[in-house]
Amino acid sequence: MFVNKYGAIQTMYFFKRTDEGLEITSEQFKKNMINSNASYDTSEGDIKRYNVRSQTRLKLNTGFVNEDFNKTIEELLLTENCWITYNGNTMAAIPITQQLTYNTSLNNKTINYQIEFAFASDKINIVR
Hints:
- The protein is mainly beta.
- It is built from 1 helix and 7 strands; from the N terminus they run ββββαβββ.
- The protein has a domain at 2-25 and 55-119.
- It has a 5-stranded antiparallel β-sheet with strand order 3-4-7-6-5. It has a two-stranded antiparallel ribbon with strand order 1-2.
- A hairpin with a 2-residue loop joins β5 (83-86) and β6.
- The two termini are 29 Å apart.
């Protein structure tokens, strides 16, 4: 679902192949290994990972559509508000695809659009 150019919520169905992935970011630092006895545990690593974040991404395919669908895809990519119902849950999403080539039946026998989305919240909630 997305808010179209008229301000109305429009529903669009992607009924072909779906690819789910995860984008992970984190930071690292080198920690002090020496304890109060002036020794250290050699089995413990000296690099510590923190601020781990992950975001679920989906690549969705429309299936075969006609040329009239070009404007709908354009509005979807230009929207500020978008939601995806996936695995029974409706979550806010962001269209990641930044480029659109209009398909026509003259140039392409069958028209299928693949759009990539990222959920608008992290996989593990870090809001404190």
